[in-house]
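Lab notes, practical 5.
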Amino acid sequence: MTPVWQSWVFLFEVALVLAVCAVWAGQRYRNDRLALRKRVLVNLLDGKAMDGVLYSRRGRLLVLRDVTVLEQGAQPVSVDGEVLVDRNRVDFVQVTDR
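Output from the prediction step:
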């Protein structure tokens, strides 16, 4: 039979692991929702940019709505529906005030 103090140490260790997991999950959830439903400017590695509302994230994809594609030397082009952008193509994302 194990001593009572070992049981208490085990319970403390389990509670500590659960607390760390809860903090990690809460931080991850907060970071994932940081810019959702806000207007963003997504700058792509190829020099193009997309102005739209960051509607959701699906794994490696950013889902944008109400999108306008911006390219240097060309007129802005509005896009109907949703646009899916792979995160590998994204240089950086700016949250705009509009």
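Observations recorded by the TA: DSSP finds one helix and five strands in the chain. The first strand starts at residue 39 and ends at 44.
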